[in-house]
Input
Amino acid sequence: SYLTKAVLANPNCNPSVRLALSFCFFRQEQFDRATSAAKDAFSKDPTNLNALVMLALLEQVVAKKDRQKRVECRNNAFDFCMVVKALDPKHAPALNLLSNHYFHTWRQLLSGDNQYLPFSAIESSDEAMDTAEHRNPSSSYLLDAEYMLLIRSLATELNLLDRIRVNNNPTVHSILEIRNSDSKSANVAFPEGLDLSLYALLRVSPNFSSALTAEVPFPIHVNRLDWNELGRVEQLAQEALQSTSILSITAESYYQLGKVAHAKGNLSHALEYYRRALRDNPDFVLATFCQAEIYFARQENIQALDLFEKILVKHSDDKDTQAYVALLKAIVKQQETPFEKLREIAPGFKCEVDLWLLQGELRQKVVAEHLISLKCYLHAKDCIEQQGGQVPAAVLSNISILHHSLNKLDKALEYSKSALQACVPESDSTSSTNSAAPALNNAEFEDVFFVWSPTGYDVHLLEEDKDILRFQVTARSDSDKFNTSHQVPVGTEVLIDDIRLIVCSVKEHEIHCHRGPVPISSDTTMALRVKSPRNIFSDSNVTYCYNFALILDDCGHSSAATEVFTELLKRHPSFIECYLRLSLIACDKGKFDEATVWLSRALEINDDEPDVNICLGDLFSRGGLADEAKKCYEKMCNKSNRESRAMLSLGNFYYSNSIIAKAEKTDSKAADAGANAAALLKDSYKFYFHVLTEDSSNVYATNGLGMVCIEKSEIDTAKEIFAKAREVDMSLAEDITTNLAHTFMIQNRLLDAERLYERTLKTLTKSNRGLKASYICQCISFVQYKHHRYRDSVNSLLRSIHLHPNNLRDWYNVAIVSEISATSVIANGDKGNKTVSAADIMQAKKELLFAKQVFGNLGKINLSQKLLNYEKKSALTHEAVCQANVSVFEEHLQSAEEDEQRRRQEKLRREEEHLMRAKRKLDEQAKIAEQQEQERREQQLIAAQKQKKLDELQEKWVSHHVPSSKGDQSQAQGTAGSQPSNKKKRSKHAKKGKASESPEDAADEDETGGEKAVSFPSDLFGSSDEDDDFEPVQKDKDGVANVASTDMSKKLKRSLMDIELFGDESDEDDADTTAGQEKASEPSETLKPKKKRLRKQTEGDEADEIDDAEVLEEPENEVSGDQVMQLGEEGAVAVDSSLLNSKRSRVVTDSDDEEGS
Output
């Protein structure tokens, strides 16, 4: 802030002020303002070298943040520093920046593509020459994995421990030796035709790997070679160190020298340089970080962890530091890091693989962390593959084991095979002639313990006998010759058309094989492949082979697992775990004698092995040899009172015997069976309690204690024990859940018990789905039986039989449940609970016959009662009962069929009656509809006739118009003057007359001109006396009568409306004229016109306007009856069209009365 005030106070101040301001902004990471201040300082003083150095630093900051401008900004920074060095060769900050630039810059000694070419390809090119000059003098060659040839002119620029990269490969090689390439160099084979005087020989470390050479044979042509000039880096750092005494700058110089020594592998010198840098600048974080890395490389992990934790305090967001801290804590303190944190800090860390592997190894020790451990191992595997390396067999084996523990057997088998395949290069020979290789035949071992090797021969089927197949062998190339003794010896397995055959004899150009079950085509030529065993059973691979066999056994491939275990015992006879696994496989197959043999052989190796003795005791206990089993258990307990497994075995032994003694209570020979059972149960409780005293977290003892509580009828206590035990150890959830379901069944909570049994059955793995799954199916069947779901119970028993077909007791239970299910159908019908159909009785009869058949078969088996595990007499008794019930079922079936027949007939009768009623109803509705339709047609016919006659009348009236001109009016007035003026006033009803006529009617009236008005006879529509609606005509002041309308015109209008609205056939044909006039003169309520106000008109107007509607003028003179009759004879009657179109219109005329008309 003070520097800013100084610049504002004096803009022309010394440029060093702006430079100091730029430095402050740089330390505060305000890089834009720092750049502006540095540019201002340089513009004020172009000779200010410190300003150029500051600009170079800022360019490096931009290059770090912006990838697109990275190259440009680094070049700018380099140019600034070179300018400073040119002006001041001893400018220490610029020298340090240049040193750092050269450390991270790779110079191209050879520029070309990145393609690897063998030396032979270069030698056979079109540009080759006969002399040594045909070799491109700008090329270099990799002679083998350690040496390379480089042009002497380029080699002179290199120094020892400089770093190089070949063909842009990320692998960095350090130069260990540079010498002349003479032909006397030991252990180096030079290509022929090269002038060695033009080349220098370089020895590098690490070696050129197979990934670098891309499987191209040596010598290899090198097109591109990059060089890191560590010598120049060291030189510039030394010059900077000698050019200044400022501690912060000397610390930077020491740091650069330490990086050079660190890159060359000289850790002691690098550590000394870092210490000097920290001595001059204790806050130099980068020097501290590099010093911690050296401690880590020297396995001084505690010191490295302290330094990294100090850095983490100042820079808590640095991911590399966090990754180092997590790695060192895992090594030193066995401390785990959260998985999400690992995913955040591990990517990009140079020890990422080690970090993931260590975290996975720590979590692998805890069963609950196996899933996270698996994810860590998978991340490590992906990192190794991304780096182009080969995943070690140990990593693949651990991944397989974790998949196995998570019950992902397919994945476990896949990774176990991959682990064994990764061991193949480390094993002995893979040749088919290797006598040490085992002869394993299972298909699961393909590509693991043996492969099918191509021979270069084809075979064609010549002849096939009953047992022998003869093949003709042909070589694919002339150079190959069929060698009987080496290629296909007798007894070798061969693969022809993907069919495995065994060679029984070999002749010249022929092989004979034993015929197999699959036919072989004789029309095609097939490739011949020979089985080549692999010798993977070495000492270093024993664990991998054992894990592979273990997974095979759990996957259900017991025969394949037996082969591997047997082969392991041949090579390692003291491998006791193999004996145990073989005995368990034999027990699962029911071969208890064979299992005893395997355990006896294990005891010959180590008589005091606890697992072998306990397994042997379990085997004796299963076979009913209680004394021998007890001896085995007590033998282990006497050797060690803390042998928890032996104690548990004794507790289980006493518990099983107590159950047997309890079952013998009904036997008259065992009166004290109850007391004996209670004593055995008490002994069992003592052993379980002793184990829990030594180890309170032993779930097996807790489970046994719960079973003892069940036998003592303490159901609630047992349920609580099982629930807690299941929460503690999920690995034993199957057994504990089963026992908890037993408690629910005892409490008659059948649905809860069935649910737990089903859940246990789903969680069983393939390895223990035999007897255990069968037992759980039996429990489910019993629950369903108690719930009266007999058919579900039978299905569950059939599932148990499918899992364990040798258990005859399941067949006995199936017959029992089927018999009860069948009889329950008849019993429900007899009790009247529900109507039993014939189909139900038929199904019940089938079940009864099935039960009878099963009982009959069980009664015919001739085995000892111990092996039968059911009562043979009881089976025969049930068979007789079923036979007796068959006739009862037939009677019920016949009765049910008769009842159903009667019900069907009654139903048919009711349906027929219903159909008849519906038909009658439909007929009645049809008649009514027909009558209504006929009436409607008659009404339509009458209406059509009326409309026709009205239309005819209208046509006659429209053909002649009524005249209404002014001349006619004057003539009419003159005629009226000689006549007495007896006009009447319009009545109140007339004032409510019809609406005025339309303008079209007025126009028609004007068109008539001076025609004489047509009058009609008074008797045509009725006499004038019958019209009471009109008042006498009023006179005006002059005494001239203003005729509103003649009687004839009024009667005409009314008659037209009445005829149109009320007329029918009788009005024209049958009724007389007087009756028609009387009917026409009657006003209709629906046709009464609304009262309308008439507007007053001045004298001389021709027509009044009624509600803005025009009114037609009517002739004021009355037409005599003679004239009307005359016109009637001529057949021409003129009527205005508006009188026909408007039903409610009335004709009115002006009145000369002062009050208006």
